[in-house]
Design goal:
Number of helices of chain B: 12
Helix content of chain A: 40-55%
Shape of chain A: elongated
Order of helices and strands of chain B: HHEHEEHHHEEHEEHHHEEEHH
Largest interface: A-B, 148 and 129 residues
Distance between the termini of chain A: 63 Å
Number of domains of chain B: 2
Strand order of the largest sheet of chain A: 14-33-32-31-15-27-30-29-28
Shape of chain B: extended
Oligomer: heterodimer
Strand content of chain B: 15-25%
Helix content of chain B: 25-40%
Distance between the termini of chain B: 32 Å
Strand order of the largest sheet of chain B: 1-10-3-8
Radius of gyration of chain A: 37 Å
Structural class of chain B: alpha+beta
Largest sheet of chain A: 9 strands, mixed
Number of helices of chain A: 49
Structural class of chain A: alpha+beta
Largest sheet of chain B: 4 strands, antiparallel
Number of strands of chain A: 33
């Protein structure tokens, strides 16, 4: 009864259960032979046709196949088994319909759902199969449906068409048989890729020639490897090897290519796309697993009860039954008590099976479905920007969202927007780009500069706030001119003039694009380039520079330079690169400027900006000639070409003059730091797993406040050997222990006074430092760990993973950089295995698919890089910040609701069923039911299902704003507090207690009682009605107690259920039904005779009070003595509702005044310059060579997103080789110095002199940051001071339990606050 | 540096609200802004506070205790007299009947038990027979009946349901009434004599009607072919159950109380919930307001001992009882109410103390912990 994934509207995303679809002949296929244009030959092999069938059923097969599938569910089979048992008259203790009605109900609900799903699949299949494509048949192009395309056909594709099958590209309209495809639907990459036909076939331009083409392809059998293909084309007695470079795969879209021809190699289900859409792993939640365990336990319990009762039956039959035979002889077939006991066992199994009612599974699914819809409907998770609402793609995981302990996030596109913006710069020691503080203080929003007024070529996208830089450029500051000239010259960007005057830059890395765009806006517009020249519009004047050399970027050099000759003939080298590298190569006279710039850089770096230093060097003609010779020589060599080139570059990049530095903001998505802060307050550990470089990753870590200066220490694991990594891990652990020991000592010396001041209750309780349970558990302080991919590879090895997990689990934040998609999955696997924690992976790209699939919950960011991640995900939405809502609001509620639902569900069924057990002792263990058979049938599906469903769907303990304000509310889910084995036992104990009361109270009362007309009350039917009514009332009162959020629906369901019970009772016991079916409705008159007796009502009232009063008392005591946070929040909510003033603040007197938490530094102050890191080179090397070779120029008419794939294979190969070289090379160089290994980054700096300024900043921040509700915003200032948000903000900026420090420093005890507010 | 984080924050804070308010962009994908879909349905959110729980406990206590006292007093005012006439004891007058029971004997065994009532029984007195250790609630027993047969359905009369087996047919003749319940019908007859102080006995008139549920008598049970006079004809072609001594149409001379609608039969057919039970046998109606229905004094119970309970260690009792608005004597209910009421009241006090001692916490909650 799993609700399958929603049917995606795109045919590509259809997930087929492949195992059943695979035709047998496919398995044996060892190689595939395809003869072009010869259908008869190809038909011999019975290759799959291009018709795809993702639907499971047709009209005839639906019923048997669907039923077969449903009965594969254990629960369904179990109930079928019960049904069969009931058909045996000696066993049957219930009428057949008590089981069959729920079973049929469940089966038909599922069947209807399956049928609708399948209907949509049929529809999408039809749509896809009936797409038109042009097939070359008998020399003529004919329109054919996709489903009729056969292997060996030649089909023609036109621009922007979907590729119908896996094709061998034969020819295209573009030169050299090139064609461009977009593979977004296939692998999620949005950039275009180039495919090239074999040169021999690329001449086959027209249909006539193609019709004559009679080559034969021998290739590998169908497989799911998207990036690999091997085969051979035999044509005209020649062999031509085929690779993936020649293939067009189904699912791709042809772009920028007028048309092309291809030979169908794989069709339909054999295509790589279809082979890839294999079964996704079915995810189960931990509640699911727990539930399955519990259900097994209950079965065990059921068997135990059955055995007890069967033994009882044996004893009774022997002792009493055998003597009672005058009145009740044994059945002829049952001639001894043992056999009778055996039968009675099964009879009791049937009766008691309602402890695990079939409706449990259906209800759980319904609740999850409801929660899923709430997520889909949530407007606060709707991104108006991309017009995407949140989407639940797996409806069965919702409650696990409330238990997440680890979040693994991708960086690019997830945390960041992958948009770089030129934010600040330092030119000649003057910093530009700071937002005017006076404007900010006035609360106005700074307006970005408008460039278009003076520069018609300006790009509207840049937001730069500092007008003084523009002034500097306008007034002719030469250094500023040179600065921007450098930016417009020193890069590998390609420009494209789509329409007149509208320049579009194609940058290989967004950083470069940002820099060139900045230069463009400041009047240095890069216009076009040829292999030898660069044309720049300098303040409206076109200037063409001769490009003498590009000294390309690579990871070791961390800089790039160009050498250009300006029209006047002066040769100048422009260099941009990481400051650490560049500053070593400056002319000594730059010393002073360097210091100033370094200060600026530090400032930028502490903001998480990516920095670059810029410098130039004038070259004389001689110097250039001399070096050019060296350079050419180096370029010509074959051996060690790289090294020799590097040496040559090194030679010339010396004695440079510093121009300044740029700071680029890697724009975070909206609300990322806040989301991360809130999530980590909720005790969720956040890991960033990125393919990016360490510096970039660390920078992002800072800018999204994952890493803060308040952290005790940040460790870098960068070892390249097993030993090195182990050593580094060990060292960091030692440092942790040492640190926390220091902290403990400090705490001890500060003494008890502090502990008392903590007693006001809004920060963590002082831990007892003298009794650390374990070394690592006792560690206090916040640590972060940065580990690189190659170290991670070692750390994930079997013998070290434990050590790794030990270290990492103490860390508050972990950043893994340079990791491969596989490693991402491995890391998650590791945490899953060792920590038994619920993991969530969030990502947006194809490289995140593995981790999304591995994690318990996969979240895809939609609307960014393609749909691959979304397709693999369980939830998708457009913005990272929605994650807090998904987890803290929806997840938390889902978990809470599911737990409450399960508790109540088990309770009510135990209360219901166990009455039979007690009755067994009084009815000779004969499996006589206490209740009417209809009551048993309807109890679970009518009388009690809807109220608990309503609670399971609508219940809320605290409003959504509160769960964001108090992230600690999330903790019970992580600790699994609300439903675990203990809670389960409490529930069933309560259920059993209720059943005891429900049986023995009527028993004691009724056994002597008589009606008011003297007729004895203790007849079976009266007893049944009394007990059933008491049961319904008790469970209704209980659900009323459990429901915390009474919407109209809850009212309707609770009262409606009670009403329906009495209505149905009277109908079933009515004269009319009896006169129609006297055998079936023999409870005639019981309802009215029973329910008019005062004694019966007194009994019911008594039983209800006995059942409910202890529960009430326990709950009250729990709230009173050990209140959960949610209780407290709820209570305060109530209190404030009562004395609500318009716009009153939520919880006065609990928060911390904004000013008093100001002792925490906000990053800039504390972040010392030692770890300046970012530099804006995110791109690969090789593009310099590409530009100077001019290879990419001829394609410049095509709009290509990247350069990487548009060139011939040979060029790509050289690129790849270089990349490999780099990867192998990097290890040999020492890690970048900025973040030294295992060194303390900084100590918290709370300089008192700084405080006043921070106070006002924070105060201002507080009032306009997190207060979501308008009522909070409007509150008078005096009251806002004590706003409950303080607690959150405290950690948002402090991260550490700064409350302690703050209170010790400025001691804002509750009394202080009271004083302040009273003033 | 503040710029980036601040602006993002502001947008974050305001974005949801803004999009919520400015729903003008009626886009297909945008979820509807309804209270239901946004989970903002108005709701009552009760919580357990001292202000609600404690009064509830006191209220329960204050309601239950008086009710309990009332019930207890009422129950105590009810007179009940019970006599066991099984005859297990050798001294019992029914001992010989108990011992020498044989299914085949045609001669009824009679015994008479003297007893005395210390107090007079005012108002109507109800006479019950009680059986112990008799499993009328056994599953096979309970279902061994045919309601359509008992409802006078002519087809069912001659074709008793399979549920009645093995009491559906006797020598291939359908049994009426069929089934184990009917077959085991209680067939002792009891007569009550008042023994005047002068040793003369006067029989106390026992009313045989009005002892069954109205619905049973008038709807559920019906003689085949309507409740006509000629029951003998109606039951033509059937035989009586094996344990019976006479056919069903000879249960009573009164045609209104004969056949399936014989009230003794109906009462028996309403199976008991528990193995020890009592069933209403006769009613002794109050004749005049002046004299008590059963004055105190000596009585004799004359029993025609037909019903064997020896084999399964059963017990047979005769009970005389008066009733009140709440039925017969039922001390348990009153005591239970008093107990539960006091416990609740006590719990209320305890909780109040606890609340006073520890409850300060919740008035100044520590949210951030």
């Amino acid at each position: 009864m799993t609700i399958a994934k929603d049917i995606p509207d795109k045919w590509l995303s259809i997930v087929l259960p492949l195992q059943r679809k695979k035709r047998p002949d496919n398995c044996g296929e060892e190689e595939r032979k395809v003869h072009a244009n010869v259908r008869e030959y190809n038909e011999k092999f019975q290759y799959a046709s291009n018709c795809i069938v993702t639907s499971k059923y047709n009209i005839i097969t639906f019923l048997p196949v669907n039923l077969f599938e449903q009965f594969q569910e254990v629960a369904n089979t179990y109930f079928l088994f019960l049904l069969i048992l009931q058909l045996i008259p000696q066993i049957s203790s219930l009428s057949w319909f008590t089981t069959i009605v729920p079973l049929v109900l469940v089966l038909s609900i599922t069947a209807v759902k399956d049928a609708t799903d399948d209907y949509f699949r049929h529809k999408s299949d039809n749509q896809v199969n009936n797409r038109q494509s042009q097939v070359l048949l008998n020399g003529i192009l004919q329109n054919e449906k996709w489903m009729n395309v056969r292997v060996g056909d030649i089909i023609k594709l036109e621009n922007n068409q979907f590729v119908a099958a896996d094709l061998l590209l034969l020819s295209s309209t573009e030169p050299h048989g090139l064609c461009y495809i977009e593979t977004a639907e296939l692998d999620g990459e949005t950039n275009m890729k180039v495919r090239q036909s074999l040169s021999v076939t690329s001449e086959l331009g027209d249909p006539d020639k193609l019709a004559q083409f009679d080559g034969e392809v021998v290739c590998e059998p169908p497989n799911n490897k998207l990036d690999r293909f091997s085969g051979t084309l035999y044509w005209r007695d020649c062999k031509y090897p085929l690779s993936n470079q020649n293939m067009l795969l189904r699912g791709c879209v042809l772009r920028n290519t007028e048309s092309c021809y291809g030979l169908v190699i794989f069709a339909g289900p054999d295509t790589k796309l279809m082979q890839n859409s294999g079964c996704t792993k079915f995810k189960r939640t931990s509640i699911d697993r727990l539930m399955n365990t519990l259900v097994l336990w209950i079965f065990g319990f059921l068997v135990c009860m059955g055995v007890i009762l069967a033994i009882g039956n044996a004893v009774w039959e022997r002792k009493a039954g055998s003597l009672f035979q005058n009145f009740l002889p044994w059945d002829p077939s049952v001639n001894n008590f043992l056999f009778s006991a055996f039968l009675s066992f099964w009879s009791y199994v049937i009766i008691l099976n309602t402890v695990v009612p079939i409706s449990l599974y259906v209800s759980v699914e319904v609740i999850r479905l409801g929660h899923s819809y709430f997520i889909n409907w949530d407007r606060k998770m709707y991104c108006s920007h991309s017009n995407t609402a949140a989407e639940v793609r797996t409806t069965t995981l919702n409650e696990e969202l409330g238990q997440v302990e680890y979040i693994f996030s991708d960086k690019t596109g997830t945390l960041t927007q992958n948009i770089m913006s030129f934010n600040k710069c330092s030119i000649n020691g003057h910093a530009y780009g700071e937002i005017n503080h006076t404007i900010r203080a006035q609360g106005k929003k700074a307006e970005p500069l408008d460039f278009s007024s003076w520069n018609p070529l300006a790009d509207g996208g840049l937001c730069f706030y500092d007008g003084s830089l523009l002034e500097a450029v306008k007034t002719g500051d030469l250094v500023a001119h040179e600065f921007f000239r450098l930016l417009s010259l020193c890069h590998t960007v390609m420009s494209e003039e789509k329409t007149e005057g509208a320049l579009v830059y194609k940058a290989q890395s967004p950083d470069e694009g940002a820099l060139v765009t900045a230069a463009r806006n400041f009047g240095f517009v890069f216009c076009s380039r040829t292999p030898g020249t660069v044309t720049v519009h300098e303040l409206g004047r076109p200037v063409t520079y001769t490009l003498l050399a590009i000294l390309d970027f690579n990871n070791i050099r961390k800089r790039m330079s160009v050498i250009v000759r300006n029209p006047e003939g002066r040769i100048r080298l422009y260099c941009k690169g990481a400051d650490t590298v560049l500053f070593d190569r400056l002319h000594p006279c730059n010393h002073e400027l360097m210091n100033i710039t370094t200060n600026h850089l530090n400032e930028y770096a502490s903001d998480g900006l990516r920095t670059l230093a810029l410098a130039y060097r004038d070259l004389t003609e001689d110097e250039w000639e001399e070096w050019a010779e060296l350079y050419r020589g180096a370029g010509r060599t074959v051996d060690f070409r790289e090294d020799r080139l590097a040496a040559a570059y090194e030679e010339i990049e010396q004695d440079m003059m510093l121009l300044g530095a740029t700071a680029i903001e890697d724009k975070l998505q909206e609300g990322v730091p806040e989301t991360i802060a809130i999530l980590s307050l909720a005790n969720i550990k956040i890991w960033v797993l990125t393919g990016d470089k360490q510096e970039t990753a660390v920078n992002i870590g800072y800018s999204c406040k994952m890493l803060t200066d308040d952290m005790t220490e940040i460790f870098i694991i960068n070892g390249h050997t097993v030993q090195g990594v182990r050593e580094e891990l060990r060292r960091s652990r030692e440092r942790m222990v040492a640190n926390s020991r220091d902290a403990m000592k400090e705490e001890e010396t500060q003494g008890l006074g502090k502990a008392c001041s903590l007693g006001n209750g809004f920060s963590e309780k002082p831990k007892n430092p003298t009794s650390p349970t374990s070394l690592l558990e006792s560690i206090s302080g916040e640590f972060a760990l940065v580990i690189s991919g190659h170290s991670l590879a070692h750390a994930l090895e079997a013998d070290m993973e434990y050590e790794f997990v030990e270290t990492v689990s103490v860390c508050k934040a972990v950043i893994c950089c340079r990791v491969t998609p596989l490693q991402k999955a491995l890391v998650i696997e590791l945490i899953k295995r060792h920590k038994k924690a619920v993991t969530l992976a969030i990502g947006d790209g194809a490289n995140d698919v593995s981790m999304i699939k591995t994690a318990h919950i996969g979240v895809g960011i939609s609307g960014q890089e393609g749909i691959q991640a979304v397709l693999a995900s369980d939830y998708s939405f457009a913005q990272f910040r929605f994650l807090q809502r998904l987890l803290l609001v929806h997840g938390r509620w889902s978990y809470l609701r599911m737990c409450r639902f399960l508790c109540y569900f088990f309770y009510k069924n135990f209360a219901f069923t166990m009455v039979h057990f007690w009755f067994g002792f009084f009815c000779g263990f004969s499996a006589q039911t206490v209740y009417d058979q209809y009551f048993i049938t309807l109890y679970n599906i009518v009388y009690t299902s809807l109220p608990v469903l309503a609670m399971g769907i609508f219940d809320q303990d605290v409003p959504e704003q509160r769960s964001l304000e108090y992230p600690k509310l999330y903790e019970p889910g992580q600790l699994n507090l609300l439903f675990n084995k203990r809670e389960f036992f409490i529930c069933i104990t309560q259920g059993i207690y209720t059943s005891v009361v429900l049986f023995f109270v009527p028993y004691s009362v009724l056994s002597h009682a008589t009606q008011s007309n003297g007729i004895a009350l203790a007849d079976y039917q009266t007893f049944a009605v009394t007990t059933a009514t008491a049961l319904v009332i008790v469970v209704s009162v209980q659900i009323a107690l459990d429901t915390g959020y009474w919407t109209a629906i809850n009212h309707f369901f609770v009262w409606g259920s009670l009403g329906s019970y009495f209505t149905i009772l009277f109908v079933l016991h009515s004269d009319i039904l009896f006169s129609l079916f006297p055998q079936q409705f023999n409870f005639l008159g019981s309802a009215q005779n029973t329910l008019k007796q005062p004694v019966v009502w007194l009994t019911i009232a008594l039983a209800t009070v006995i059942c409910i009063a202890p529960v009430l008392a326990f709950r009250f005591l729990k709230v009173e003595l050990k209140p959960q946070l949610s209780d407290t929040v709820r209570y305060t909510q109530l209190v404030h509702q009562k004395k609500r003033k318009p716009g009153g603040c939520v919880s006065r007197g609990m928060g911390v005044d904004g000013g008093e938490m100001g002792g925490v530094s906000l990053g800039r102050l504390g972040r010392s310059g030692s770890h300046r890191s970012g530099y804006a080179f995110a791109h690969q090397e090789g593009f310099g060579e590409l530009i100077t070779s001019g290879k990419n120029m001829r394609l410049s008419s095509l709009a290509l997103a990247t350069f990487a794939s548009r060139h011939s294979a040979s060029w790509i190969d050289t690129l790849r080789k270089k990349k490999h070289g780099n990867i192998q090379n990097t290890p040999s160089t020492p890690p970048a110095p900025p973040l030294s290994n295992s060194s303390s980054l900084n100590a918290p700096q709370d300089t008192p002199s700084e405080e006043p300024r921070q106070h006002c900043e924070l105060g201002g921040f507080q009032s306009d940051s997190l207060n979501e509700g308008p009522d909070l915003k409007n509150s008078p200032e005096g009251e806002t001071g004590g706003c409950s948000l303080g607690a959150l903000q405290e950690v948002l900026f402090g991260w550490r339990g700064s409350g302690a420090r703050v209170s010790s420093a400025s001691s804002p005890g509750p009394s202080d606050i009271a004083e302040e507010t009273s003033q | 540096m503040m710029a980036s984080s601040y602006s993002a924050k502001e947008e974050d804070g305001h974005h949801p609200g803004a999009s919520g308010a400015g729903g003008a962009a009626a886009n297909g994908r945008k979820p509807d802004n309804t209270a239901f879909k946004q989970q903002r349905l108005p709701a009552w959110q009760p919580i357990l506070t001292a202000g609600t729980v404690l009064p509830a406990f006191f209220a329960i206590g204050l309601i239950f205790i008086p009710i309990g006292i009332g019930l207890y007093v009422t129950s105590n005012n009810i007179k009940e007299f019970e006599i066991d006439y099984t005859g297990t004891d050798t001294s019992s007058p029914c001992f010989s009947c108990y011992q020498n029971f044989s299914w085949n004997s045609t001669l009824p065994c009679k015994c008479s038990l003297p007893f005395s009532l210390d107090q007079p029984f005012e108002s109507n007195v109800f006479m019950y027979y009680g059986l112990s250790n008799f499993y009328q609630n056994h599953r096979r027993y309970v279902k061994s009946r045919d309601d359509s047969h008992l409802n006078g359905n002519l087809y069912s009369l001659t074709h008793p349901s399979k549920e009645c087996e093995p009491y559906a047919h006797r020598d291939n003749v359908p049994v009426a009434p069929c089934g184990a319940i009917a077959n085991s019908m209680f067939n002792d007859t009891m007569e009550l004599f008042f023994v005047h102080p002068n040793e003369t006995r006067s029989q106390i008139p026992l009313k045989r009607k009005g002892i069954a549920w109205w619905t049973d008598k008038h709807v559920k049970f019906r003689n085949p072919g309507g409740n006509g006079d000629n029951l003998t004809a109606a039951f033509q072609g059937t035989t009586y159950p094996v344990n019976w001594h006479k056919p069903v149409y000879e249960l009573d001379a009164d045609p209104e109380n004969n056949g399936f609608i014989n009230e003794d039969f109906i009462v028996w057919m309403r199976t008991a919930a528990l193995p020890t039970f009592r069933k209403l046998y006769r009613i002794i109606e109050k004749k005049s307001s002046m004299t008590p229905t059963l004055p105190s004094g000596n009585y004799t119970l004359e029993v025609t001992y037909n019903y064997p309970v020896h084999s399964f260690d059963g017990r047979k009792r005769m009970i005389l009882s008066t009733i009140s608005w709440m039925g017969g004597k039922n001390p348990f209910l009153g005591i239970a109410y008093i107990t539960v009421g006091s416990v609740c009241f006590f719990l209320g006090v305890v909780l109040l103390l606890i609340h006073h001692k520890y409850g300060n916490r919740s008035s100044s909650p520590d949210i951030a912990s």
